[in-house]
Amino acid sequence: MNPLLGSIMLWPFDWAPQSWLLCNGQSLSIKQNSALHSLMGNTYGGDDANFMLPNMKNVTTASGAELRYIICIQGVFPSRY
């Protein structure tokens, strides 16, 4: 099953798998990521050429493990119907 474009989930490692990026507020090119931009717009910042991913704080579990949020940048475009 392919993930939905723009899906966000917690991840237990300090790296993101293929087709995902860490939610660390980085800037992405609108031209190279037009489908994701059509969902997110400039909600988290950006300009006419770039948009920003959300900058989400890491989560620490009761056992001290640190989890990070990742976002799907290549996946199935979500349908409203």
Order of helices and strands: EEEHEEE
How many structural domains are formed by the residues?
1
Q: Give start-end ranges of low-pLDDT stretches.
A: none
Separation, N- and C-terminal Cα atoms: 18 Å
Beta-sheet strand percentage? Answer: 25-35%
Q: What's the CATH first level?
A: Alpha Beta
- Main sheet attributes: strand count, strand direction, barrel closure: 4 strands, antiparallel
> Whole-number radius of gyration?
13 Å
Helix/strand-derived category reads: mainly beta
Helix content: under 10%
What is the count of helical runs?
Answer: 1
Shape: globular
Q: Name the average pLDDT.
A: 95
* The CATH H-level homologous superfamily: Phage tail collar domain
Number of strands: 6
Describe this structure in words.
The protein is mainly beta. The chain has one domain (8-72): Phage tail collar domain (heat- and protease-stable fragment of the bacteriophage t4 short fibre, domain 3, Alpha-Beta Complex). 9% of the residues lie in helices and 27% in strands. The protein has 1 helix and 6 strands; from the N terminus they run E-E-E-H-E-E-E. The chain has one helix spanning 34-40; strands at 8-11, 20-22, 27-29, 50-52, 59-60, 66-72. Strands 1, 2, 5 and 6 form a 4-stranded antiparallel β-sheet that branches. A hairpin with a 5-residue loop joins strand 5 (59-60) and strand 6 (66-72). The longest helix is centred in the middle third of the chain and has 7 residues, at 34-40. The protein is globular, with a radius of gyration of 13 Å. The model has no long low-confidence stretch (mean pLDDT 95).
